[in-house]
Amino acid sequence: MDISILYRGSLKSCNFNCPYCPFAGKKMNRQCLEKDQAGLARFIDFVADSRHHFHILFTPYGEAMVHGHYREAMVTLSRLTQVKKVAVQTNASFSLTADHWLDRLNPDTAAFWLSWHPEQMSRSRFEKQYQALLNKKIAFSCGVVELKEYFHDISQLRKKLPRSVYLWINAYKRTPDYYSKQDIEQLIRIDPYFENNLFYYPSKGRFCRTGQNVFSVNETGQIRRCHFVNQILGNISSIDFGQISRATACPNETCHCHIGYIYLRKLHQQKLYGSGMLERIPEGFIYQQ
Ligand code: SF4
Ligand code: SF4
Fold this sequence. Notes:
By secondary structure, the protein is α/β, with parallel strands linked by helices. The protein contains nine helices and 15 strands.
């Protein structure tokens, strides 16, 4: 079976201080970090012993790649025959040199989802980070949550990026009608798929691929269909994904997060992203403006 896993351990900490974020500046004590590390080690062992093929995306609460155990997990998983893809959502502040981890990544299976926070990291530093991935031919997408004050930064970043790199823009949804029609038109010129991220999609009763061949797994091995539905389907220590795989409808009223709604059948996002679903790279993307 081909299985996509959204992995979220017990990490709840970040080295950045984005004012709107509950994990900003939070630190974890040693005991909590060890618990997270042990859970990740069990997950890697499970994947290594499995007969299935995996596409894995790390979706931490906070920032994972400042921690050695996540960098090593990327390296190890990228080199397992069971792993077709291992990607991570990160603020791009990771070390480029620690333990030569980037050199040891398998560029055929590793990928990155880089979130840029212009008030936390200069554009030149962000460029240096993604340039290291370009040099190593490691796939990545990058983007920002679009607050209006970032518009100039985003335009400049788009100009600098190679055309083959997709720059996504996440809509700021906390303030209703935050964008004018003109804003939206301008943003679509930078991210042609920006509109996909603008909505809360009605999802109750609509078929969603999560629970069938996409699952969420946490540090204790508990399996859920996605991060947004709390029902536990089993544990990787005792259940085979083949036993729990079902084509079912979403129980929630709406879905608005990219890592969720892309699996709603009615949105046909698989067709857009193809093999780049997890790292958010539209198939064959070339920036056209
Ligand atoms: S980088 Fe991400 S996780 Fe860290 S504070 Fe900012 S929004 Fe939160
Ligand atoms: S539509 Fe969203 S909330 Fe509903 S099951 Fe799918 S991913 Fe989960």
